[in-house]
């Protein structure tokens, strides 16, 4: 349950110095001005608040209506005000769609997202991405909704408050960063070569420079870690891809550990036995052999990994072994050894320079680190394409290929 504000804090906010008469009607624009600073949420929640108050009279709001709403909903700490404002009044949980009007307002008002105003399609994709990221982190069991307890545990509102204060949206790494959205969406778009907004098995095999084994891709497509489209399906949609990619690029978090564990635990008995692991490593080592790499025998890999993870039981590794605090840096290495060729080779070569930069850089987790590098890479590629296009135009206009040497001004 949320915490009531203490008696000493404001109990009933007064509006606009008493300029708002009890029955006087305000349309959304005036309403927004009048309530500014009278609730603890950022301005981009005003639309949500207005819609909730004016459900039966959408063209205006009276002061009396506002007062009723605020006495019922604002007399709490910020976490509870957030929860009550986002969810529907009749409901005790937040569902995905509840966030749509709030993120839509953010897109309309945030200076760092203004450039998207002419790109409705990207605005929609941004919204889907932010919501999927919130659910990825908060709805860890995949229930499809957020409870009050879940929101409080993760302090979800803090990211919204930051988005309201921070002019550079990319600094809000929790959920809202445009760069993070760009990376997720571009990588999806690249793989979805036939543009049907779905990714096939063959598409996913190309992910990360063909780094995943077909064995693990098969498991993902068997809906082992999580049903596609929430009900299960043959192909991977954009939201499914977000779950996959966040888990792939940051194997330290609990959701990712569970995601990959479910994939690897083929018989579903909750234990990653030597047999389970061996069947994946065989596929991986076969690929290594074909590509001319030295293959480390499975027994050695297993030994090395058991040293790192130190499982409690004798029969294999269970989820809780991976979730020990001292394991969060190494569990990814075991997963990579079993199904991600490129990352495993990188781990094996243990580049000390890479390890040191990782320890010393500004990022809190592997996802933030990856997204920053990948965004810059994508931006550079885009710049290169732009240059090539310009170059082609110049050559075309010159009508003669030799002119291209003289274009630099
Ligand atoms: Ca496709
Ligand atoms: Ca098993």
TrEMBL record:
It comes from the Eukaryota. InterPro entries: EF-hand-dom_pair (IPR011992), EF-hand_13 (IPR041534), EF_Hand_1_Ca_BS (IPR018247), EF_hand_dom (IPR002048). Keywords: Calcium, Metal-binding. The keyword Zinc-finger does not apply. Residues 383-409 are annotated as: Disordered. One of its GO terms (cellular component) is protein phosphatase type 2A complex. Residues 383-392 have a biased composition (Basic and acidic residues). GO terms for molecular function: calcium ion binding; protein phosphatase regulator activity. It holds the Pfam family EF-hand_13. Residues 252-287 form the EF-hand domain. This is EF-hand domain-containing protein.
């Amino acid at each position: 349950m949320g915490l009531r504000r203490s008696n000493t804090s404001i109990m009933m906010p007064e509006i606009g110095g008493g300029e708002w008469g009890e029955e006087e009607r305000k349309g959304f624009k005036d309403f927004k001005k009048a309530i500014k600073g009278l609730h603890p949420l950022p301005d981009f929640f005003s639309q949500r608040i207005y819609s909730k108050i004016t459900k039966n009279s959408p063209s205006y709001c009276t002061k009396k209506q506002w007062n009723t709403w605020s006495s019922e909903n604002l007399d709490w700490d910020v976490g509870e005000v957030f929860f009550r404002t986002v969810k529907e009044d009749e409901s005790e949980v937040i569902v995905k769609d509840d966030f749509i009007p709030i993120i839509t307002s953010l897109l309309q008002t945030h200076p760092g997202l203004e450039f998207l105003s002419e790109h409705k399609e990207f605005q929609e994709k941004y919204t889907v991405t932010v919501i999927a990221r919130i659910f990825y982190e908060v709805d860890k069991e995949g229930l499809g909704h957020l409870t009050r307890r879940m929101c409080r545990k993760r302090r979800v509102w803090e990211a919204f408050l930051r988005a309201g204060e921070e002019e550079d949206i990319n600094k809000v790494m929790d959920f809202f960063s445009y760069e993070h959205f760009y990376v997720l969406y571009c990588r999806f778009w690249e793989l979805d070569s036939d543009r049907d907004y779905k990714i096939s098995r063959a598409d996913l095999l190309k992910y990360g420079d063909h780094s995943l084994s077909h064995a693990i891709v098969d498991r993902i497509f068997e809906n082992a870690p999580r049903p596609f489209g929430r009900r299960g399906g043959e192909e991977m949609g954009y939201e499914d891809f977000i779950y996959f990619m966040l888990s792939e690029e940051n194997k330290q978090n609990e959701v990712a550990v569970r995601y990959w564990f479910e994939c690897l635990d083929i018989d579903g008995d909750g234990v990653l036995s030597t047999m389970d692991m061996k069947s994946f490593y065989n596929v991986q080592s076969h690929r290594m052999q074909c590509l001319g790499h030295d293959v480390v025998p499975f027994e050695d890999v297993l030994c090395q990994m058991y040293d790192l993870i130190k499982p409690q039981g004798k029969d294999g590794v269970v989820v809780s072994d991976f979730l020990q605090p001292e394991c969060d840096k190494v569990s990814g290495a075991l997963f990579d050894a079993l199904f991600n060729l490129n990352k495993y080779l990188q781990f094996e070569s243990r580049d000390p320079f890479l390890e040191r930069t990782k320890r010393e850089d500004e990022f809190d987790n592997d996802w933030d680190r990856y997204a920053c590098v990948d965004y810059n890479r994508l931006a550079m590629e885009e710049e290169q394409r732009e240059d090539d296009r310009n170059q082609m135009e110049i050559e075309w206009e010159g009508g003669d290929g030799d002119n291209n040497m003289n274009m630099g001004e």
